[in-house]
Amino acid sequence: MRILVCGGAGYIGSNMTAMLAAEGHEPIVLDNLSKGHRAAVEPAELVRGDLADYQLLVNTLRRYQIEVVMHFAAFIEVGESIQAPLKYYRNNVSNTQTLLSAMQEMDVEKFIFSSSAAVYGTPQQLPIKEDSPKQPINPYGETKLAVEMMCHYQCQAGKLRYAALRYFNASGAGNNCTLGEDHRPESHLIPRIIQTAMGKYPHIKIYGTDYPTPDGTCIRDYIYVEDLCRAHLLALDKLNQSTELIYNLGNGTGYSVKEVIDTVKKISGRDFKVLESERRPGDPPVLASDATKAKRELGWIPKIPQLEQIVETAWKWHNEHPYGYHD
Predict the structure, then answer these.
(1) What distances in angstroms separate CA 63 from CA 55, 106, 220, 236, one per listed residue?
(2) Residue range 193-217, pLDDT digits in tens
(3) Which residues are tagged catalytic?
(4) What is the CATH topology of the domain spanning 2-171+222-249?
(5) What is the chain's percent helix, strand, coil content, to nearest 5?
(6) Contacting residues for 238 by C-beta, under 8 A, at least 6 apart
(7) Of 10, 39, 67, 202, which sees the most CB atoms within 10 A?
(8) Confidence class for position 124, pLDDT limits 50, 70, 90
(9) Largest Cα–Cα distance in the chain?
(10) Alpha carbon separation from 4 to 28, 156, 239, 260 (Å, rounded)
(11) Which residues of the chain are in CATH 3.40.50.720 domains?
């Protein structure tokens, strides 16, 4: 199929683009390269542009005869969303509305949306199921939920078939460890700890050690990036028989910040300085998924569920790309 991958030069988008090509699909990447990297999607076709550009979207959908749109082009930093909420509503909500409008004009019905566990906020029960209350506690989570609702009502109107995939923490390097995380600046925990182990930072900070968890630090559910991408392919197949799909994508097993630090120390064989700091606003104590629905309905099975294996792939990529991508 001819698939438009919005944000396809970013971390998850580039892994998705590689997997689509490997599976015989024809991915077309649309990215403004504000966060992504051209080197991450070579040799895929790249349309450099912004989701705010309605005419560009219409022209791209028409030119490439796009059949499916996958949307990875969101801002993702919780802390930044609290400091700059309008930036997040503009990019994550308004630009997605523009994209859906262009799809409607060009009669492109199938849409796979990268949602987030952030739509749940601080969960009332664990593990989190798809029907758990949606009560975001930061603008980032609110924007993801707003897009889900937009998709829902567009679907109800008979103009969209969509899957909303609620990610937990995407991690590791895919495509034989050739596609990893290169955010600038880096804020994700695993790559940040790895870069500290490599000597790029003098220390790693733990934000909050007084959470109601066994070791006092936040617990998160880490999912290998290729396992995440594989779920998109399964959801795409499922959309042939369905109009509205919502799935959690996670391992169901949470690891604390301290456990992640210890794992990186073990894999790297290096010690480094760890500092304890105050909590950050908008961080729930525990996020762990129940992905039973995706496993039951899609036949999805994570192939690399263990944190050690995930960290090993990331460690390999960062050591082979000590300065990130070359662009």
Answers:
(1) 12, 11, 41, 22
(2) 999 999 999 999 999 999 999 999 9
(3) 140
(4) Rossmann fold (3.40.50)
(5) 40, 20, 40
(6) 163, 245, 297, 298
(7) 10
(8) confident
(9) 56
(10) 5, 23, 16, 34
(11) 2-171+222-249
Q: What is the pLDDT of residues 20-54, one digit of tens each?
A: 999 999 999 999 999 999 999 998 999 999 999 99
CA-to-CA separations, 208 to 22, 75, 172, 205, 258, in angstroms, rounded: 42, 24, 24, 9, 11
Q: Which pair of tokens denotes residue 292?
A: 């039973």
Model pLDDT, residue 237:
97
List own/partner pairs for 187-193 with CB under 8 A and 24 or more apart. Answer: 187/77, 187/79, 189/220, 189/257, 189/260, 190/222, 190/260, 190/264, 190/310, 190/311, 190/314, 191/314, 191/318, 193/260, 193/261, 193/264
User: For the domain 189-220+252-320, what is the CATH code?
Assistant: 3.90.25.10
Helices assigned H by DSSP within the chain: 11-22, 54-63, 78-83, 85-88, 95-105, 139-156, 189-197, 225-238, 257-268, 292-298, 307-320
The residues of the chain that CATH labels 3.90.25.10 are 189-220+252-320
